[in-house]
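ligand=adenosine-5'-triphosphate
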Amino acid sequence: MTAVPAVTLHNVELRHGARVIVSGLSGTFAPGSLTALVGANGSGKTTLLRALAGLHPLAAGRIDRGGLRPRDIALLAQGSHLDRAFPITCEEVVALGGSRLGPFRAVDAKRWAAARAALDRVGLAGMEHRQIQALSAGQFQRVLFARTIVQEASLILLDEPFTAVDAATTCLLLSVIRDWHAQGRTVIAVLHDLELVRRHFPRTLSLTDATGTWDVLPDRALQAA
Ligand SMILES: Nc1ncnc2c1ncn2[C@@H]1O[C@H](COP(=O)(O)OP(=O)(O)OP(=O)(O)O)[C@@H](O)[C@H]1O
């Protein structure tokens, strides 16, 4: 993992077409911080996450990522865009995934070992050679977490990571998030379950009032959500 910098938004405006989704947003995600991004449906959480990943253009303002390169940023998209009909095994998704390797680059023994260890970490040991189309939604989300583990990113962006996931899997995936936090990575997760946010996320950014400067005080932010 490369050094983890602060990620700072300066007066950011995000639009879809002519429609302003978020405006005048300024604030800092401190290095190694663990933040829940909350807010009503349509408030712009996914759009902001994509902008943080460099995948949505800014209509105004600036995001300072402290020199992070695209490969230092992992985005686990909502209802991942991976085509599950594609014939590929769990181990291959994990080893080939992330932004460090294109599918046609060689995967070395170290990378395969890292993929197996990551699958083990998410409770899928023994399922390395299972086709992803034969997985349940919760098992597939575990595979995507394993893929994110292998990526060794400094900034990890998770969009509703517990949707369609049962309580045991949520608990396991939360422990992976805690590992990332303990390792000093910056983690930002879009979530709707405010009780889960209160229990597990030290900081909260509510997009309901996301115009102006935010200070991610958990209580104030949650009251506004
Ligand atoms: N591709 C798009 N083209 C036009 N408008 C879009 C597009 N994607 C999202 N929007 C609009 O932008 C607004 C913000 O959407 P976004 O998905 O960022 O919200 P969200 O807070 O993540 O919502 P949810 O909680 O429902 O996932 C919504 O009003 C949505 O309709």
